[in-house]
Amino acid sequence: LPLDERLKRRIIDGERNGLEADLDSALETRPALAIVNDILLDGMKVVGELFGSGQMQLPFVLQSAEVMKTAVAYLEPHMEKNEDESGKGKIVLATVKGDVHDIGKNLVDIILSNNGYDVVNIGIKQPINAIIEAAEQHRADAIGMSGLLVKSTVIMKENLQEMSDRGVADKYPVLLGGAALTRAYVEDDLRSMFAGDVHYARDAFEGLSLMDRVMA
Ligand code: B1M
């Protein structure tokens, strides 16, 4: 198989033997982020499709996710860092209550950290209390919530309600992302019920441009 195909297959098959060597070869011809975006994420997409259609069982999805994480960790030191920019602002990042998916959230962490933001990544399955507490404790400028389950889109709505109820809605602009969300849901439904500022980020790069806008 050609290199790109082989790397994609490694994600789909959850095969990590020889992963680093293939990543090294890929790094000779293109930037680390392009490898993630153009090849590895494609592989994860196929995993999602196979799992969704019952052609792949959960333990294999987990293996694919592990290979994905290993690959991203290997590539991370090669990613472009914007050294001139730092201290642009601080964001608390979390995957919402009941949701364990964190590959996307961790990519957002990498992109924001490499571009001048302080990221307080508090992990997965975080209830809104813990998110608000972290924001207060670290004096964050914004809150970012990730969630991939359809259920998580409902949790996000409850979280925004809780922020409004606790009077911190206008203190922290909120960024939301994850596969089950849609722009319309965030910008129409959630925005109309939230007393603060809430944005939808389709991917980590939109997360970065939104942070740049929010902090401007
Ligand atoms: Co799960 N899973 N999973 N899973 N999993 C999905 C989400 C699913 C769509 C698969 C499917 O059925 N086709 C489905 C959800 C269906 C639904 O809700 N209707 C699903 C399911 C059902 C489940 C379980 C319930 C399965 C079970 O137990 N029977 C279970 C849930 C556990 C739980 O959360 N309580 C489960 C478990 C798992 C694994 C543990 C095996 C593993 C996760 C490992 C891990 O993350 N550490 C896993 C995986 C890998 C997936 C799929 C296949 C891939 C997700 C992924 O990492 N994508 C996924 C299929 C899919 O998403 N279509 C699926 C790559 C990642 C980079 O994309 O996170 O979307 P994503 O991030 C993107 C953007 O969304 C955005 O930026 C990133 C790109 O730049 N983004 C943000 C994300 N967060 C952001 C935050 C921002 C800004 C942008 O600002 C704050």
From TrEMBL:
<feature type="binding site">
    <location>
        <position position="204"/>
    </location>
    <ligand>
        <name>methylcob(III)alamin</name>
    </ligand>
</feature>
<comment type="similarity">
    <text>Belongs to the vitamin-B12 dependent methionine synthase family.</text>
</comment>
<feature type="binding site">
    <location>
        <position position="146"/>
    </location>
    <ligand>
        <name>methylcob(III)alamin</name>
    </ligand>
</feature>
<feature type="binding site" description="axial binding residue">
    <location>
        <position position="101"/>
    </location>
    <ligand>
        <name>methylcob(III)alamin</name>
    </ligand>
</feature>
<feature type="domain" description="B12-binding N-terminal">
    <location>
        <begin position="1"/>
        <end position="87"/>
    </location>
</feature>
<feature type="binding site">
    <location>
        <begin position="98"/>
        <end position="102"/>
    </location>
    <ligand>
        <name>methylcob(III)alamin</name>
    </ligand>
</feature>
<feature type="domain" description="B12-binding">
    <location>
        <begin position="88"/>
        <end position="216"/>
    </location>
</feature>
<protein>
    <recommendedName>
        <fullName>Methionine synthase</fullName>
    </recommendedName>
</protein>
<comment type="function">
    <text>Catalyzes the transfer of a methyl group from methyl-cobalamin to homocysteine, yielding enzyme-bound cob(I)alamin and methionine. Subsequently, remethylates the cofactor using methyltetrahydrofolate.</text>
</comment>
